Amino acid sequence: MKILITGITGLLGKELALTLSKRHDVCGISRNGGFMDFDVQNIDLTDQSAAYETITKINPDIVIHTAAMSNVDQCEKEPDTAIAQNAIGTRNVALACQRFDAEMLYVSTDYVFSSEDISRKNGFIETDQLNHANIYARSKADGEKFVNVLLNKAYIVRISWLFGKWRENFVTQTVKLLKDGKQPVMVTDMVSAPTYVKDLSEALGALIDSHAYGTYHLTNSGFASRYDIACEICDIIGAPKTLIKKVTRKELNLPAPRPGFSGLDGKYWRLSGFKPLRNWQEAVKEFITSGSSE
């Protein structure tokens, strides 16, 4: 297949490019330059004409749309920009796919769900009603609506709390602070699932090979707070847990509200015959011990 990845220079985009290029012809779109020797077009997807012209000229079999304004607090401060990039940009990609009947895979977020019950044992399933707590989540949910309305051959994949080697993230930041003997500040009342982009990319490869269109939840298994993750990292690298400073969301007083619980249950992923991703503890350990976190 000919695969076009938007946001190819991002954390997930880079991992996807390397994973999928082993079996497919991969190219990309980015606002931030190129990546390795992949053919990358530098355009702004909020420009409908530019998006349409570029994507239709490439004529891919599928577009994997990872590009997004993902800084949650920035989205809250700049709501129109967030809606433009995450909703209108997604609409523009979908319209281009519609023109040549190309498939589209839209990467969405766990933040389209929100619960204050952080002790929940059951995650949100794919068909649960959306309940977004901030502008970022609203913009991503609006993107989902455009994909559902405009396309028949589409996947919506909701993910959460990504970590990987291509960009600084909460795992790499925590490892560095702990190794330096400094105090990481970790929230105790915000729970979801850390997800390794290596595992996610391999699973997305299996999904697009299946042509089983629909909405899926795809994260590493199990739920944890940021504090829980930091404790696990301490065990892996041999750092004292007393270094970790526990705080609540209220104490952080961030510009954008965060959900207490947004964990995802990939019920439709499992029932469609796909293999669930391994638990987050194994993924974090492999990432750290392989040296990828340094």
Strand and helix map with partners:
Elements: E1 2-6, H1 11-20, E2 25-30, E3 39-42, H2 48-58, E4 62-65, H3 72-77, H4 79-99, E5 103-109, H5 135-150, E6 154-159, E7 162-163, H6 170-179, E8 185-187, E9 191-192, E10 195-196, H7 197-210, E11 214-217, E12 224-225, H8 226-237, E13 245-247, H9 249-252, H10 267-271, H11 280-289
Parallel strand pairs: 1-2, 1-4, 2-3, 4-5, 5-6, 6-11, 7-10, 8-13
Antiparallel strand pairs: 9-12
Helix pairs in contact: 1-7, 2-4, 4-5, 6-8, 8-11
Key traits:
single chain, about 290 residues, alpha/beta, Rossmann fold, seven-stranded parallel sheet, two-stranded parallel sheet, 11 helices, 13 strands, globular
Description:
The structure is a single chain. With 294 residues, the protein is an alpha/beta fold. It has one domain: NAD(P)-binding Rossmann-like Domain (Rossmann fold, 3-Layer(aba) Sandwich). The chain is built from eleven helices and 13 strands. It has helices at residues 11-20, 48-58, 72-77, 79-99, 135-150, 170-179, 197-210, 226-237, 249-252, 267-271, 280-289, and strands spanning 2-6, 25-30, 39-42, 62-65, 103-109, 154-159, 162-163, 185-187, 191-192, 195-196, 214-217, 224-225, 245-247. Strand 1, helix 1 and strand 2 form a beta-alpha-beta unit. Helix 1 (11-20) packs across helix 7 (197-210), helix 4 (79-99) runs parallel beside helix 5 (135-150) and helix 6 crosses helix 8 (226-237). The chain is globular. The model has no long low-confidence stretch (mean pLDDT 96).
